[in-house]
Amino acid sequence: MLHHLSIGVADLHRASTFYDAVLAPLGYTQVFADDEAVGYGYPGGGDKLCLKLASPVIVPGDGFHLAFAAREPAQVDQFHTAALRHGGRCNGAPGLRPDYGDSYYAAFMVDPDGYRIEAVINAGP
Fold first, then answer.
1. CA 74, 79, 85 angle in degrees (round to 5)?
2. Residue 7: in which H helix or E strand, if any?
3. What tens digit of pLDDT does each residue of 3-12 get?
4. Nearest alpha carbon to residue 14 among 49, 47, 46, 53
5. What is the Cα 102 distance to its own chain's centre?
């Protein structure tokens, strides 16, 4: 349904360093970059997430988060580790979330700008 999503960031270098690290384990990479924006997607494809330099940054409140697809639980674990190493704050350690489904494995983080993000694999029905 969505073609791409853009979010505003206060420091493009800090944000792109963070997202380079957390998205790499999930198979995403920078697909473009300039002085005002960095786009992420699958190698050779278009951007699905775009970081745009903004001032002020207004982060959506409760109820909003970005969930990135993983193909295996180890990628979720690596996402979480990379986020902690690059200025993220844990908002839910990697693990099964039975409230969301029997096979819902996810980690929840808050990025350096305050966006709530998640890596998830949901192999169940």
1. 125
2. strand 5-9
3. 999 999 999 9
4. 53
5. 23
